[in-house]
Amino acid sequence: MPETTPNGRQPEPARRTRDTHGRASRSAPADASPTALDGPADAPGPTASGPEDTPGPSGPSHPSAHHPGPPGHHHRPHPHPHPHGHPDDAARPAAARIAHWAGRLTLDQVPSVVRRAVRRQLLDGIGCLLAALRKDAAGPALAAARGLGGPPEAAVPGTTALIGAPAAALATGALVHALDFDDTHPGALVHATAAVLPALLTTAQHTTATGARVLTAAAAGYETAVRVGLAAPYRFHARGVHATQVATVFAAPVTAAVLHDTTVPVLTHALGLAGSSAGGLLEFLDAGSDSKTLHPGLAAHAGLLALRLATAGAEGPATVLEGRYGVYAALAGHPVTAAEVAGDLGEMWHAPAVAAKRHPCCQLMHPALDAARVLHGRLAGAEVASAVVDVPPGAVPVVCEPAGLRQAPRTAYEAKFALPYSTALMLLDGRVTLDSYDRAAGARPDAAALAARITHRERPWPGPDAEAPGRIRALTTDGRELTAEVPGGHRPPPPTEEVLMKFHVNAGGENALTRELAERVLHIDREPTLDRVLELTASIGASFERRTP
To answer: Cα angle at 46 between 44 and 51, to 5 degrees?
Structure first.
């Protein structure tokens, strides 16, 4: 594992050579030592006007004209000419750039605004995992993970059997994403935590990584996932491919490699190998299945397996992302350069824009649901005779069509992608919670009846569909016409206080264990190891009645 100094910082990076196990051996100091950007790792970050926290321009590194992303974050220039990269980076493929950056990353190089965001996202992900255990939402994945077995390296949270880390990551990822309540990046439309957290929790169980190193690994994983998605925003979805499985199959090996102190060449090969497992189909939208819940777990499993294969000597193409037959050409039908994916690594950070969900359903429905919540408060007891919801064109195939299925979803999971039905729930109840989706439409005849009277209207929007304005116009049975609208554009992620409240609800209620777990995760870089965090997560998860592997 990487050495640490007495104050918990990582020391100056050293040049690395590959040993027979693919791990790093250290010889001489690196040519660029890190600069302490933020002071102590647990100190409050600078204000928004500080160099690290100053929002950068909207959009990805090379933004699409149609889908500019949410703001990124710059940190102050490094005193050396190549702080995270290499003079030859311009000629390196994207996978090699990512591996070189992640392999040298230390916590000192992660801006405070990124650290705070990552800690918040990890807490939200653990809460989503616990909610899935509480609702017994990932039984097949848990059973399959037990069957895969492997060396006794890691346990799925809430279980006791030690299995191989890739198998444990499969089930853990399925748990985080099972209820579709885990965070997303609105510009990339990627669920990053659902693969980064499994890679962290499973790898940490068979290493002795410090909390500071865990936070560093998480930051690297988040940034990788978001960048892969942002380089071709919404283009994977347009071709029926789930961007989450595409992007996070690269994030998982990056996350684990930082904890293992893997060499740059081995990680580059691992990324090349991981690309062969990129995918995840959206056919579940028409079939009524819940296969999407498995996609982040499959990505985490494949990513960790790719890292092991590379460590054993397998080689993958460094041009896996931007190459002639690479991920973007094959799955997005869109040419992308290495610079568009990784050209400004270490200078622009997109991870802070990853946001916890406020509603446990497809993010493309959230603007409309926010508007419907406003309208609910103005109904004054009146019933809705009919309603029209504005929807950006790219969201229509996902949450509005076919109309019959979206108005009367056949399963509880299908309801999470049904805009008319979910809007009806919001208009009737004033909120949409996990319990709202416990049963299919047949269990709520009032919601199904109202959903049949809700239609949509396409409303073009130049930015990411998840950041479109929300607008609903309703006619009431007492003859009134009511309209509610919420503005579009980048919405700041929920603050820590709101994420903390959501965590306690997902964990089954606030108590001494959940309070301690939240405190430790929100200061994870102070932890000597992840042992107590893992112990608390397991204890809370084991308190729920459910199937266990």
So the answer is: 150
455 in helix, strand or coil?
strand
Per-residue pLDDT averaged across 25-51, rounded?
Answer: 31
Written as six digits, the tokens of 277 are: 């497992």
Strand partners, 348: 74
Q: Which domain holds residue 379?
A: 363-486
Burial letters 265-289, b for 16+ CB under 10 A, else e: bbbbbbbbbbbebbbbebebbeeee
Q: CA angle at residue 464 from 459 to 466, to 5 degrees?
A: 80
Query: What are the tens digits of pLDDT across the range 459-518?
Result: 999 999 999 999 999 999 999 999 999 999 999 999 999 999 999 999 999 999 999 999
**Contacts for 495 with CB less than 8 Å, ≥ 6 apart:** none
On the question of pLDDT at 40 being above 90, the answer is no
pLDDT for position 158: 85
Burial class (CB in 10 A: 0-12, 13-18, 19+), 377: exposed
Pair (295, 424) in one structural domain:
no
Alpha-carbon gap, residue 188 to 225, rounded angstroms: 9
CA distance 212 to 327: 32
283-to-173, 297, 332, 354, 416 alpha-carbon distances in Å? 20, 18, 16, 25, 15
d(CA 253, CA 270): 7
Question: Is residue 398 domain-resident?
Answer: yes
Number of domains, the chain: 2
283 and 171 share a domain?
yes
Report how far residue 272's alpha carbon sits from residue 314's, in angstroms, rounded to the nearest whole number: 10
Mind listing the pLDDT tens digit for each residue in 340-390? 999 999 999 999 999 999 999 999 999 999 999 999 999 987 899 999 999
Whether residues 469 and 507 fall in one domain: no
Residue 74's beta-bridge partner residues?
348
Please choose, from the candidates 516, 521, 26, 2, the residue with its C-alpha nearest in 3D space to the C-alpha of residue 210. 2
* CATH at 97: 1.10.4100.10
Structure tokens at 270: 């691992």
User: What is the rounded (10 degree) CA torsion for 243, 249, 254, 256?
Assistant: 130
H or E element that contains 267: helix 264-274
Residue of 115, 166, 113 lying closest to 306 (CA atoms): 166
For 30, residues 6+ apart whose C-beta sits below 8 A from its C-beta are 12, 13, 14, 15, 104
Cβ atoms < 10 Å from Cβ of 65: 7
CATH number at residue 384: 3.30.1330.120
pLDDT of residue 88: 59
| Nearest alpha-carbon partner for 192 in 394, 357, 42 | 357
pLDDT surpasses 90 at 114: yes
DSSP line for 125-145: HHHHHHHHHHTT--HHHHHHH
